[in-house]
């Protein structure tokens, strides 16, 4: 985007310079044509006044055009700045979301590890009871750790 903005500025500047040079060339040609023709002194004064007025109009037109170009450039720069700010806000939101996902994943991973540890402890306790001859009717519907591992997908 920065390159596009720089390229657009350069093109506008070149275009403005070309228009200005063309206008100056035309004005000079008009002045030259006016001074080459043999006329009375009053006619020359009228031409000079007309040439001066036309040059003043040309200068005013060029000033307006320059203002318009500056306004267009400012609008483009403002638009670019808004787009950059929007992109930065979205980037910050994505980073925040990714951090929250990572925190949630780590919490879930820790809970899973804790549950696996508790399941191993309970399985070991249950196996030690059966080895000691404490046969307890195991009808609560709980499975042993080995049964859970065997049925994993």
Describe the protein's architecture and organization.
This protein is mostly helical. It is 86% helix and 0% strand. The protein has helices spanning 2-36, 41-131, 145-150. Helix 1 packs antiparallel against helix 2. The longest helix is centred in the middle third of the chain and has 91 residues, at 41-131. The chain is rod-shaped and about 135 Å long. The model has no long low-confidence stretch (mean pLDDT 82).
Keywords:
153 residues; LZTS; cytoplasm; coiled coil; Leucine zipper putative tumor suppressor 1
Give a concise summary:
This protein is mainly α. It has helices at residues 2-36, 41-131, 145-150. The model has no long low-confidence stretch (mean pLDDT 82).
Distance between the termini: 50 Å
User: Which geometry do the CA atoms define?
Assistant: rod-shaped
Q: Could you give the order of the helices and strands?
A: HHH
What amount of the residues lies in strands? under 5%
> How big is the Rg?
43 Å
Q: Count the E strands.
A: 0
Largest sheet: none
DSSP helix fraction: over 70%
Q: Structural class given helices, strands, pairing? A: mainly alpha
Organism: Lates japonicus (Japanese lates)
Biased composition (Basic and acidic residues): 44-56
InterPro entries: LZTS
Pfam family, one: Fez1
